[in-house]
Amino acid sequence: MREEESNWFEELPSPEELMPLSQTLISPHLAVAFDITNSSHHQFPLQPPSAAEDEPARTLKRPRLVWTPQLHKRFVDAVAHLGIKNAVPKTIMQLMSVDGLTRENVASHLQKYRLYLKRMQGLAGGAAAADSATDHLFASSPVPPHFLHPAARPASDHYLPFVPGLQQHRNHHHHQQHMAVPAHFGSPRNAHFELPVLSRMGASVPGYVEDVESGGRKVLTLFPAGDD
DNA sequence: TCCTCAATAT
DNA sequence: TATATTGAGG
């Protein structure tokens, strides 16, 4: 029995006030490897505080996120690089660097993923029957071994695959002014969506929004379908 | 403030 | 069903 409120968003802080919280949790090293080269600049389309009437980007209720295998893979890669102890929702979200992805999206997914890992630990050693269609998504990406062995990993957890020639110059295109609609809601902020060693998704995936109405429900598909 | 988890809602 | 939301507890 939730009440429907129509103007709850009018009291939310402006985007600029929220930004400072979501930085510096990722080491420069990791940021480079994941090609997040915006250490000191906001990458979000900032909105002039005046016209708050069409600021849909972050204040509006988003459609449900669809975790495609591609998106989940990026999630797993982020967790793998961060190490179990550093893999918390906010940090994962930042490492994934997907526009439109919220901390709650990640938190919810992380919770389920942990349950999945727990089930797999239980089965570790004997039978192999862990996919009940619910786990299909999770089974679509390989689980890094140390996910299942909490103590089988040195203190410095995050191994960082060195990627040759990644000392690229950062892209200087802050030319996006106030856009009424999120630029590329649901796509990796970097053009080439490729992680150094762990993942080799074919070419760059041009993530895009897909508003699907199924059964009257609108969902948000972050990445085009495509199997591993 | 953020994280984690179980329960619950949609 | 898959994901979101809530609320307690740390």
From TrEMBL:
Q: Where can this protein be found?
A: Nucleus
Coiled coil ranges: none
Residues covered by the HTH myb-type domain: 67-118
Per the record, GO CC terms?
Answer: nucleus
Name recorded for this polypeptide: Transcription factor MYBC1-like
| GO MF, any single term | DNA binding
The protein's matches in InterPro entries, at most eight in alphabetical order, are given as: Homeodomain-like_sf, LUX/BOA-like, Myb_dom, Myb_dom_plants, SANT/Myb
| Organism of derivation | Vigna radiata var. radiata (Mung bean)
**Top-rank taxon:** Eukaryota
Q: Which UniProt keywords apply?
A: Nucleus, Transcription, Transcription regulation
